[in-house]
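Input set for joint prediction.
Command: fold jointly, output tokens.
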Amino acid sequence: MNGAQDLGGMMGFGPVNPEPDEPVFHAEWERRVLAATLAMGALGEWSIDTSRFARESLPPAQYLTSSYYQIWLAGLERLIRWQELVSADELASGHSQGPGRPTARPPLAPERVASALAAGSPTERPAPAPARFKPGDRVMTRTINPTGHTRLPRYLRHHLGEIIAVHGAHVFPDSSAAGKGEDPQWLYTAKFAASELWGPDADHRDSVTADLWEPYLERA
Amino acid sequence: MSTHSHDHDHATEGSELDEMTLRVKALESLLVEKGYVDPAALDALIDTYETKVGPRNGAQVVARAWADPAYGERLRQDATAAIAELGFSGRQGEHMVALENTPEQHNMVVCTLCSCYPWPVLGLPPVWYKAPAYRSRAVIDPRGVLAEFGVTLGPDQAVRVWDSTSEVRYLVIPMRPAGTEGWSEERLQHLVTRDSMIGTGLALSPDEVSA
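tokens >
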């Protein structure tokens, strides 16, 4: 969706502001939000794509004025409501009115944390068909404006690029976030000249790459 | 939310942090009561990312690549496997690609759409990496961003910005500083900063480390 998360090329946010010797967390609640988000994700009730959509579909003014862990908290609150893991009353009051429902996977046990993190969630899948493109191919990104989740940023739509890597077939976020299954699609890295994206003022030597699924691309 | 302050009189009334603390405590206790999360699992997750996983992992990868050309080649061919040789794998690093800086090309990584970052080798991302200023500007004004980070590029260096839009995660391999011939891997690791592996910094020179 064309939400506030799609930041590439926007202006007016000022300088990047690195914090010297930045701590991993700035408050105890940030620790708990990170961990609760990971532990709830382990229940298998939603994909990473759905969780990204829960965050990026926050109202733009809220998204842009929230810290990242505030965005994660708001996203988690939406996900547990969308999946009806808690009721609206329970979320508002912070008090359970009954036991939880069975979940796709059991709750993450402390002794399983290390192995779950080490395994991760690889997204490569058997390819449904031969790849359409190979390194060196010229491609044009499609003009699309889906109202759901997509990983084709606005600044990369309808631009000429070149395939520089093929990563196999991967879970297609647009389908996965919409609850339409994994729908694996070929994933490529495409390179775009900075001047193609930003015009003649861009440094002619520079380029931007992105990882793009086959449905985002046409042969140029 | 000042309505809660009567039973939290140690907290700053109405401060944003206080409100967040209360809201998160309420959510966590609800999730625990419902049986969805085990607080001890949350503690283990926090401990992992606060004390066990961080950019020193990535520094080991970079130093190995500098010191061992055969390892560097394996990193080029299959970064996920080469990084796993050092024991780093899993969540947010399932599909790794290493980007070697050269005198011709400086690489820099961003996630314009969210906060994708290679956790097994760099840990959790810093605030600036997730904030709008970096995410908006890295792709349209990379040289301006690099200048703010104090990075001086070579006269003929192109800048390539890698927007992490999939589950592929990128680790920049900075150029090995001059004057480090014959250094051990362990000594080389001290030259490798977190920012040099994002591409918003360079590896430190021997002078900078001893200073």
